[in-house]
Structure formats: C-alpha cells, structure tokens
Amino acid sequence: MMTCARWTVRSYLVTLPYPGVFFMDGVHLNPKSIFAELKRRNVYRVAVAYAIVGWAITQIATQVSPFFGIPNWCVRLVVILLLLGFPFALVLSWVFELTPGGLKRTEDVARHDSIVRRTGRKLDFLIIGVLLVVIGFLTYQRFAIVQKAPATPAPVREKSIAVLPFENRSDDKQNAYFADGVQDALLADLAKIADLKVISRTSVMPYKSGIARNLREIGAQLGVSYLCEGSVQRAGGSVRVSAQLIDAATDAHLWAENFDRPLDDVFAIQSEIAKAIADQLRAKLSPQEKAAIEKPPTNDLVAYDLYLRSLALFAYASDQVLAKEKLPQAARLLGEALARDPQFLFAWCLLSRVHGYMYFGGFDHTPERLDQANAAVQAALRLQPEAGEAHLALANFYYYGFLDYGRARTELAVARRTLPNDAEVFAYTGYIDRREGYWEEANRNLERSLEIDPRNFFTLQQLALTYQSQHRYADEARTYDRALAIMPRDPSTRILRAGVELDWRADIKPFQTMLAALLAEDPSVAPEVDDPFYALCERTPAAAARVLSHYPRDGLVTNGVNYPHAYWEGVIAHCQGDRPKARAAFNAARSEVQTIVKKQPDFAAALSLLGMIDAGLGRKQKALFEGRRACELLPGSKDALDGPALAANLAQIYAWTGEKELAIEQIASLERVPNFLSYGFLMLQPQWDSLRGDPRFDNIVASLAPKASNK
Q1: What CATH class has 532-710?
Q2: What CATH class is the domain 301-510?
Q3: Could you give the residue ranges of the DSSP H alpha helices within 166-314?
C-alpha cells in the first residue's frame, strides 16, 4: 500500500543511513531505477521546458515593461515567482500525469494506460519551438545592438595628408594672397593623385599660420596621417619656399627642403614639392597625374592673385544676404584675371560657377546671366576638354541652370576621373541624389564628401537639412552639433539647431530662447535668424511685429525667387484676420512677382508664390491655376526637394481658398515623401487653422508626433 493517499505536496528526497537505498514517499527505489523513473515521468523535460519558458517570460517582461510604464518591482516579482515555482513544477511532474481523462496521480494510472511518452513528445516540440523563438530573439537583439552602437571612427588612411596654410614671411604683408596661392596650388596638385587622401582647402584654411598649432590635434581632427606646412618669402624678383612633411601622430619631421628660385618659377617649386611628398608617402603616380602636376595653372602671377581673391568672395555664395554683394565683385575680378591670361582654365571654371549661382540664387534670374555661365564653361572646355575642373563646372551649369540632374551626374562622373580627392564631386552627387529622391544615397555621398572635407561648414549644414526633410531629427541635431563644434558662435546654425525641437516636438521655447540670445549678442544678425516660418508659430502680435521689422525691405530669395517684404505683411495680416491690410500688402507683392512671371511664365517657384498671393487676395481660380501649374512644371518626381515645397504651397492655396478636402488630401500625399512640412509647422502655424477640427487633418498631425521612444 502506498502512502500517497494523504498527499499534501510534501514529497521530498531523504538520505537514509543505508547505503544505496532511497526512500520516496514510502517507496524504496534503487538509484538506477529512480533516474529511469524521472525520465519516464518527463521530469527532465519539464525542467528544461520550465527553464526556457521562464527565461522567455523574463525577457518579454523586461522589454515590454518600459513601453507600458510597468514599475521595476513588478518585473522583479515575476522573476521571483518563476524561481519559486521551479521546484513545485518538478514535484508536480513526478506526482501527477496528464491523461485523456484529465490530471491524475501517477500512481493511479496503470502502465498500459499511460501516455507519458506522447506527453514527452509534446514537451519536446514545445522545447524546440521555444528554443527557436529564443534563438531568433537573441539574433535580433544582437543585430539591434550592432545597429544602434555608435559608429567607431574610421581608421586613419596611411597615405593621407593635409596641407596647412603657409606662413607669409614677406616684408610686404600684402603678399598674404601669394602665400595662400602657393599652398593652394600645392594642395591642388596633391589632390590629383588618386593614391592619396588629401583634405580639401575649406577644411585646412582655419588652421592659419601665425597661431599656435597642435599638430597631433589637427591630424586627429582632419583624420590624416601626415601634415605639410611651410612658409613663403617674396623679395623683389625672387622667392623662397620652405616646406616640411610631418608625421601627425608623432610630430616627427620626415622631410624638409628650401627652394630659392626666381619669382616666375614659383609654380615649378610647388610641383617639385608635390612630387617629393608623393615620393615620401610612396604614392603611386600615373603618367597623367605627373603631367597634370607639372602643368602650372597660369604663368601670370597677378592673374593668379585675382583668382584667389575671387575664390575668397565666392565662399559667400551660400549666404543670401552677402552673396548679392560678393558675387558681382568675384565676377569682376575674374574678368580682370582672364583679360591678363585668357588661357587660365581655373578662372573660366570659377566664372561659370559665379554666373550660375547668381542665376540660381535669384540675384539675376535672367537668360542673359545663364548665357554668361555657359560661355565661360565652354571656354574652359575648349582649352582642356578632359579637365576635371571644366566638367565639374559644366555639372554645376546643368544643376543650377536647368535642373538637369541626369546630365549633371554624367559630368560629375567624368570630373571624378581626374579629381579623385575633390569633395565637391561627392557633395554635388549627394545634392543630385537628394533632388532625384535617393535620400539614403544622398546621406552617404554627403558623408563621403565630409571625409575629404571634414570641416566644411556648408556641407554639414546641407547634410542637416537633408535629414530635416526626412524627419530624421535626431540625426539633424547631431549634424548641427558637428557644425557648431567648428563654428560655435555661428548664428544661423545656432537658430537652426534650436528649431529642430520645434519641427520635432512642436516645442517653440528653444527657438524663442535662442533668438532672444542672438539678438541680444548682435542685433545685426536679425535678418539671418528671425525666420517668418518659425515666427508664425509663436502666434502673437509681438512676434509678428518683430519678424516684419527684421525681414529685409527688399526681400529674401527662396527657391530662386525673391519673396517681397509685402508678401509676409500680407500673410501675417491674413492670419490675424485683418482683411483690408492683407489685401493692400498682397496687391503690393503681386505687382513685383507678376513682373517676374510675365518675363518667365514657366518659372515654377515664381508661379507658386503668385498663386499664394492670389489666394490671399481671394482670386480663387487664378490661385488654383497658378499653384497647380507650378506643381506640373516642377513635380516631386522631377525634383524631390523643391517639388514637395511647391506642393506644400498648393496645400496652403487650397486651405486659403476654402478647398478643405483638397488641402487635406494634398498634405496627406505630401507626408508620404520627405518634405519640410513638419509636425511643429502643422501643429502651430496659423495657415492651417481652417483645417483644424477635421479628424483627417488631426490624424495626419497626430501621426507625425514624436513617438515615445524618441522623447
């Protein structure tokens, strides 16, 4: 008779003084037979299954609890209960058996009626299934960790060099441009060697001579193994150029030499230095590269000086306020340089780019300006049909002049053959990727450009704006932080960085705080930092008055067309409900924009602006035609950057002309592609007030809200 009749879940193993014999709940078992019985009753399987399922439950509880806000003590309680339940599960598997008739004590089940083998097979399947889930989870977790882990810095390439600005040791300090020219020419020659990584001019210019240089730190910042520095001393008809090659990691001087020559031989000196450095770094030099290095840019030093001055002025091209003044000056200096040396290839290429940017930037958006850009680049191609600089200029011409991104991409591919270290080739490839809707490729090419030109402030700003259109706000903020590490006090970047929170979370406070700080530091930066698009989100009369006082009286160019001061007067009056004031302002703006459209009826950006003005004036049919026509001329399929901007303008036209259904449909389609119309803008800007309360619009806005994981 078995004593299990009074079972109270107290069964346990007791070691008796008799060797080799165990007593279990009144049953004497041989040690060999007890293990067999444990196996038969599936105790082992239950132990394994319990351990695996318990681990899975623990992992799920750990991962899910933060999402639902479950306190940590609840997770700990689950773990403790699972641990406490383990011995009970083993005891129950020994004492009870699952049968077709339900759960019964093992001792009450006849051996021939037992289905423990079938139960064991089911447990095997359970164990295998859970193990597969566990393996899948661990694989995903490992992959996720690898994906989320911060990128480690790329290893420094062995054959990599930065040519730092040369020191001007001439008695005449006006020769500073001459010293810059020697450094610039040397850098240009080294950049033609495909076996080298050469840091671009933009990134090395901040390390001017005359200031204390920490060469190891500079090498780390630029990501190079070697640095070249030197000096230039010009006296009468002679010049002395000193150059030295330095190991960036150790500060060790690897090579140094002085060159004393007649002034006319200065470019020959720079060529000799380039070949000496290539030899020191054991860089392979093809016959074509050797010939390119030996060819001087010009034989006229005055022309070269004029070219360098114009190059410095062209650096302001991205500044909408200063470019209007600086670009014509650059064109004039280049004209003087080419009058002295009509064979000066670099000057022709730069002149084409200056004219092209004046056209694209809206400073002179006329066919005549475009013709001048074309004439300059064709002159360059006649001089040297295979020159990479000429094909880069031609790519710019197609890009800015005709928005012909296919032909621009083809020219960039040609330019890259002879300009392996030109960061602009990668940057413009990225800009074309962006225009054609290849956003991931755009990100990669802009990052590749920054590897060669790591301190290029403009490229960093463009990469941040690329992330903004993709609503990748964390990446946008990180990129602005990289830019601010280079120029911490730059007002434009500081206000753009503050605006990320407005776009991302509809939080206007960082923008307001930063704007107040910038205006207190320097009131003259107001036109640069007080953006009407963001000021409208403040929705106060004070903000409206402030931004109108800061906005330039002669307007600012956006997408190649000038937005008059009167346009924003009209927008603000319209949003404030002051119809008479809005009408007067819009009429004034219309006369200016209508003049542009009459001259260039297929100028999409101008037509779109005219449509918004007519919408504000209540000219519904004209506004709808103009807004739609602009989108037909430049759809998102043709330009993935400006096309969506014109589509957003059309949404505003629909909203202002009472076409609520069309406005919401337009916004819904727009938010399916990268665009600038952020959660913050839709949440805060008054242009969309007529759509609020409609569930479809409200759902679109809610879908753009930051997710919990991003907060």
Answers
A1: mainly alpha
A2: mainly alpha
A3: 176-191, 201-204, 215-222, 266-280, 287-294, 301-314
